[in-house]
Design goal:
It is a single chain. This protein folds into 2 domains: about 130 residues, PH-domain like; about 50 residues. It contains 4 helices and 11 strands. Strands 7-6-5-10-11 form a 5-stranded mixed beta sheet, covered by helices on one side. A 4-stranded antiparallel beta sheet has the order 1-2-3-4, with helices on one face. A two-stranded antiparallel ribbon has the order 8-9. Strand 8 and strand 9 form a beta hairpin. Helix 3 packs antiparallel against helix 4. It starts with a helix and ends in a 15-residue tail after the last strand.
């Protein structure tokens, strides 16, 4: 293991609750690897055994500002680290700062292990590009409806459709902008897929 990891013996941890009734997931980056626990299950993934990292933006209806990082290892272990945690039946809590700090440290240690790792960002192309085509078509359809509502002098209808179009463009545009497929280096995780640390 490289000197950079040896010089950073302190453990860095992160935890979140993926569902209201399920057990919390806890992760720790230490000198030996990523230690994880999920209820009665636990394990360890050495940094040299990490073969793939994927970062993405995954909004949900109850939390639109939500990010995730997938870690896949040689032995088939897949870990999903999410930036929000269930707090109650109607609320997911944002954990921007601890999530960003943990993911940055994870990438730093994986990069320092100096083994080949496939780092991907966004959605897979076979999901992203058809989704983008549908998004553009729906946006154009809503724009046409807005123009026709204006021509018919129906102000209430115009306001409703126009407001929905603006919201749709804002939410959908943000999703597709952040989730554009691509690759990155482990020492440089993409900033637009890390929530701002407040």
């Amino acid at each position: 293991m490289s000197q950079e990891i040896d010089n950073a013996r302190a453990s860095v941890g992160y935890s979140y609750r993926p569902s209201l009734l399920g057990a919390p997931w806890a992760f720790t980056c230490d000198a030996r690897g990523i230690e994880w626990t999920a209820g009665a299950k636990s394990g360890r993934v050495p940094y040299a055994k990490v073969r793939r990292l994927r970062m993405s933006y995954r909004p949900m209806s109850m939390q639109s500002h939500r990010f995730a990082t997938e870690v896949r290892a040689d032995d088939g272990t897949t870990l999903t680290i999410v930036s929000t945690s269930w707090k109650s039946m109607v609320e997911q809590e944002r954990q921007d700062r601890p999530y960003s700090e943990f993911i940055r440290e994870l990438h730093r240690r994986v990069a320092a292990a100096a083994t080949p790792v496939d780092c991907e960002k966004g959605k897979t192309p076979w999901l992203y590009w058809p989704g983008l085509v549908i998004f553009v078509c729906v946006s154009l359809g809503l724009a046409v409806l807005t123009v026709r509502a204006l021509q018919a002098h129906t102000l209430a209808g115009t306001a409703f459709i126009g407001g929905f179009l603006v919201l749709f463009l804002w939410q959908g545009g943000n999703f597709f902008r952040r989730n554009r497929p691509g690759r990155y280096r482990p020492e440089a995780p993409p900033e637009d897929l890390l929530p701002r640390r407040s």
